[in-house]
Inverse folding.
């Protein structure tokens, strides 16, 4: 039991794909590691950003569904996504964000963290940068934590600790911090008590789901069985080309995914060329021309570090 090793990726809904790329690859300096389509809706992009190699624990992904109305952040959602930045870099980040026209607050104490910069992406998605002991210059290093807001946190906490393998590392009034795995990033999840918080509504600027990482398909299979045995309605294993996935809704209403680390993003293009060309799964390759025609072009700004 408990084979989860932290966050694999977080997937959110964006509006315009170019604006999304300008922000995540340009302002935040992440690498666009995969430009593909939503496998369930191939006329929409699926854009993946992460570190240079697209490591699990660094992957923020988007479905640009510009026709969808703005969502509402609230209970039964991931209400904030925090990236780790090196210690001492918050002030520089604040300046960079403000220069890019982003309204940002901080560095300030927030939740369990001491130096946090709070801001939103161009679609209103809530983000944070958290100073933490991560290596290297000033870049975004991956996820620091994600915040789950749920109305009855006990059940969500029980699932995360008793089944998925997280352990409680900090507790405050209405807020619990859980950790899993031993990676430098992507280990933490904060559960906040959303009693009395209005339910969120899915739409542009909200998180669609959060994926937790497991080392291989064997670990995924046994975890899937465990979750199913508890009465959750879990999907079969789905081939997402870069990982295998199962999905289920946790008791607080947040959509959870369990994703395998392998095979990873270098499965269809070399590491140096990640994100440079539209990639399609084999079963959509025959429709490439039609799909490419239906997608607006996305130019990737070179994400020089802050
Ligand atoms: Zn996912």
């Amino acid at each position: 039991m408990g084979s989860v090793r932290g966050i694999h990726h977080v997937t959110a809904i964006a509006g315009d794909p170019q604006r999304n790329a300008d922000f995540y690859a340009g302002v935040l300096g992440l690498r666009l590691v995969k430009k593909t389509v939503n496998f369930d809706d191939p006329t929409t992009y699926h854009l993946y950003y992460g570190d240079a190699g697209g490591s699990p624990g660094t992957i923020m992904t988007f479905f640009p569904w510009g026709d969808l109305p703005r969502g509402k952040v609230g209970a039964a959602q991931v209400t904030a996504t925090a990236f780790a930045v090196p210690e001492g870099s918050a002030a520089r980040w604040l300046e960079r964000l403000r220069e890019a026209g982003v309204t940002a607050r901080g560095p300030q104490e927030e939740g369990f963290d001491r130096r946090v910069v709070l801001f939103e992406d161009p679609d209103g998605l809530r983000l944070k940068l958290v100073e933490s002991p991560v290596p290297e210059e000033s870049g975004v290093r991956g996820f620091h934590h994600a915040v789950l807001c749920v109305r009855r946190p006990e059940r969500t906490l029980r699932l995360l600790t008793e089944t998925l393998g997280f352990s409680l590392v900090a507790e405050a009034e209405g807020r619990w911090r859980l950790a899993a795995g031993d990676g430098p990033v992507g280990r933490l999840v904060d559960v906040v008590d959303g009693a009395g918080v209005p339910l969120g509504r899915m739409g542009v600027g909200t998180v669609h789901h959060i994926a937790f990482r497991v080392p291989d398909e064997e670990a995924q299979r046994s975890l899937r069985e465990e979750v199913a045995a508890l009465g959750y309605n879990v999907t079969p294993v789905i081939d997402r080309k870069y990982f295998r996935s199962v999905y289920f809704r946790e008791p607080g209403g947040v959509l959870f995914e369990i994703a395998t680390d392998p095979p990873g993003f270098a499965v269809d293009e070399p590491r140096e060329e990640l994100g440079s060309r539209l990639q399609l799964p084999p079963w959509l390759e025959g429709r490439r021309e039609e799909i490419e025609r239906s997608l607006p072009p996305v130019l990737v700004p070179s994400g020089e570090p802050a």
The pocket of zinc ion is lined by residues 9, 11, 209, 211, 257 (CB under 6 Å). The chain has a mean pLDDT of 95. The chain is about 20% helix and 40% strand.
